[in-house]
Amino acid sequence: MADALTGVSRALREAPPDRVVEAADRAIRSVLGASGTAVFVADYRINGLWPVVDSRQPEVADQAGQSMVQRCFSSQQPVRDGDAGGRCRLYLPLTVWGERLGVLMVELPQEPSEEVAARAVDVAGEVAMALRAADQETDRYRRARRRERLSMAAELQWELLPGRSLSHDAFHLAGQLEPAYTVGGDHFDWSLDDDRLTVTVLNGDSIGLAAALLTAVTVNAMRNARRSGGGLVEQAELASDTVYYQHRGHRHVATVLLELDCVTGRVRAVDAGSPHLMRLRGGSVTRVALDQQLPLGMFAETRYDLQEFDLDPGDRLFVVSDGVWGADPSGRETYGQRAMARSMRATRLQPPTEAVGTVMRELQAFHADADLRDDAVVVCLDWHGSGDREGG
């Protein structure tokens, strides 16, 4: 089995980045005796999974096949589908460090043994890692993901993202941007280093490309401070000074910066003017009250203070931008007054990757399925506790 995996890994490493899917197909046919394969990637809205088109791959265009693909992606578990002729299709999640990329379908001439099925899962892991790396060197997989053309602002924002989900023994994390193809200034960022998870969520000022450029400067200023060893205060202050000296107070960015200690569950925070934090504990949704400080870039040499709060094992933390909290499409009460809490409670049995989609879908329904008037960000963090981590 190890030799087989080594062969798959070597084949994927040696393939050009735009031909990883073809290399995977050849290797899987050889190692598993498969009669065909297909790779499906999730679109920007995570509304569907789409094949990376290749004439040598069998199509799974029927409704039952698409249902199996979606079931595998949502559950993040292998799914089997046999037919009367004895053939079997294995649907395997393509996931790296919790980042859900898509699904690998492997068509086998007969029902696989447990050994073959286990080998297929490991092969899917190799394919996922190769796709994640290849995505930086070719546009092929990004073209497969998009259902329409991105605006220039959205192109910048998606390039700036760290990913859309992240898993760790102590936590699970996911985020989503909407409107996916035209998002302007709202954004999220995260980084995991030495058992400390840093998460930032930004409410971008203005609209369109101007908002995206402002957000890009802000995010990179915070990354610069963080990668130089600076804490949350240094990150906020460098970003604030950078924005101020570019725009002299005429432009600013409302931001929240969080740092989670993955061992203790202690959260340090800098609230620079919003977004909003909501905690789901048991069946109750409550707002995490933080003292709002000045948005980044409003004044020169602004200084920021840290605040702290604790998460209990099992807590779920949502961070939402004003486009979620303050949505009022018909002049009635805002989404954040009651409807948002209901949608958050409805996610109790869902992982964060599904929970962010539920809150976004409910937001769309609140808008009566019309286009969102404002950018919207939802980030969801589940804290499992250090006991789960040590036991894992």
Provide a descriptive summary of the structure in words.
The chain has 392 residues and is an alpha+beta fold. It has helices spanning 2-14, 20-32, 63-75, 114-134, 140-145, 152-160, 208-227, 232-247, 322-325, 339-345, 352-366, 386-391; strands at residues 36-42, 49-51, 79-82, 88-96, 99-108, 165-167, 171-178, 187-193, 196-203, 254-261, 266-272, 276-281, 284-287, 307-310, 316-320, 376-383. The chain folds into two domains: 2-144, Beta-Lactamase (2-Layer Sandwich), CATH 3.30.450; 150-391, Phosphatase 2c, domain 1, CATH 3.60.40. Strands 6-7-16-15-12-13 form a six-stranded antiparallel β-sheet. Helix 1 runs parallel beside helix 4 (114-134) and helix 7 (208-227) packs across helix 8. The two termini are 25 Å apart. The model is unreliable at 55-59 and 388-392 (pLDDT under 50). Keywords: Hydrolase. This is Serine/threonine-protein phosphatase.
Per-chain topology:
Layout: H1 2-14, H2 20-32, E1 36-42, E2 49-51, H3 63-75, E3 79-82, E4 88-96, E5 99-108, H4 114-134, H5 140-145, H6 152-160, E6 165-167, E7 171-178, E8 187-193, E9 196-203, H7 208-227, H8 232-247, E10 254-261, E11 266-272, E12 276-281, E13 284-287, E14 307-310, E15 316-320, H9 322-325, H10 339-345, H11 352-366, E16 376-383, H12 386-391
InterPro entries: Bact_Sigma-Reg (IPR052016), GAF-like_dom_sf (IPR029016), PPM-type-like_dom_sf (IPR036457), PPM-type_phosphatase-like_dom (IPR001932)
Keywords: Hydrolase
Organism: Micromonospora zingiberis
